[in-house]
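quick q for whoever's on today - can somebody do inverse folding on this one?? i tried earlier but teh output was garbage lol. tokens:
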């Protein structure tokens, strides 16, 4: 398991974002390492040095500090879309190889390189900005229903510097069955399943946690 690339985005003005600023940092490109990664300061956005997050309502912050996507899933999308997708094409900070990103448990921890430790908090929920960036009809529905999975949102447990080629090691797996794929399916396709995801509540990112609690209350669980 290894890190193929570290990707950062600069702010751009576009017509397809609903960010209040009209800016987005979704267009991420690989950069040469080493790249420091640390928990964002209070009010900060991305945990990746040099990266930009423009809409703090839905992106960035301590429990969405980093976004990872598997190269294997990108390859599957290349075949479906019929065009090349270089690293960073899905707005991810980390492009991985050999790691089962979508099969990761919420709360699972990864060590990347000698120092960095990240913790899985959920999966990426596609938005208007992502759809506009990819420029594919019905993108949100297609992405949510795809077997490729949404990629991982992560918080920083131990900061560190990483670079392309660094090894990735799974160093902890919590004792529950909620994977990124299972949580994403519950959040986007069948919300009646959300209450069962609360066994992973202590590790979930705030947006998904709030949604799960709302539906647990609705269904009386």
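ok took a stab at it. sequence:
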């Amino acid at each position: 398991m290894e890190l193929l690339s570290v990707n950062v985005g600069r702010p751009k003005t576009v017509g397809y974002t609903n960010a209040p600023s009209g800016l987005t940092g979704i267009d991420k490109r690989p950069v040469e390492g080493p790249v420091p990664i640390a928990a964002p300061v209070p009010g900060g956005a991305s945990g990746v040095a040099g990266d930009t997050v423009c809409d703090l309502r839905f992106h960035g912050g301590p429990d969405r500090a980093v976004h990872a996507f598997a190269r294997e899933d990108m390859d599957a999308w290349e075949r479906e879309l019929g065009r090349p997708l270089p690293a960073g094409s899905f707005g991810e900070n980390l492009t991985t190889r050999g790691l089962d990103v979508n099969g990761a448990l919420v709360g699972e921890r990864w060590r990347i390189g000698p120092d960095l430790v990240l913790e899985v908090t959920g999966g990426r929920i596609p938005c208007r900005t992502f759809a506009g960036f990819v420029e594919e009809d019905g993108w949100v529905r297609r992405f949510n229903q795809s077997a490729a999975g949404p990629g991982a949102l992560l918080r920083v447990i131990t900061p560190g510097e990483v670079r392309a080629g660094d090894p990735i090691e799974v160093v902890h797996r919590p004792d529950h069955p909620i994977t990124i794929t299972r949580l994403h399916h519950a959040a986007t396709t069948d919300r009646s399943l959300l209450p069962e995801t609360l066994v992973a509540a202590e590790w979930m990112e705030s947006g998904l946690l709030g949604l799960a609690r709302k539906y647990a209350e609705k269904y009386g669980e």
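fwiw The mean pLDDT is 91. also Helices lie at 71-81, 128-134, 139-145, 180-188, 206-218. so keep that in mind when u check it
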